[in-house]
Write a structure and sequence with these properties.
86 residues, mainly alpha, 4 helices
Length: 86
């Protein structure tokens, strides 16, 4: 497998992992806790992004994962709190 293809697959898997991680946590919070805990859910993607950003290895940058976690966390936050925002 070419190194270019391998790096693109790595970036795609980072993005998919970030979306899947925030989606499962958002769904769990929505099902388990009666009013959606928006403040807790804001802290989760920020904390994960901060931890990964501080612990990333210099050889491999996780910038797409961090961006995906923050963006998808924001999208799921709006999705599950849409009735509260109106």
């Amino acid at each position: 497998m070419d190194t270019h293809v391998r790096s693109e697959l790595s970036l795609l898997s980072e993005l998919l992992l970030s979306i899947l991680l925030t989606a499962t946590i958002a769904l769990y919070c929505y099902k388990a806790i009666a009013p959606f805990p928006w403040l807790t859910f804001i802290g989760f993607p920020l904390g994960i992004a901060l931890m990964v950003g501080c612990w990333e290895n210099k050889k491999h940058s996780w910038s797409l994962f961090i961006t995906g976690v923050l963006f998808s966390g924001f999208v799921w936050l709006i999705y599950y709190n849409w009735s509260s925002l109106l």
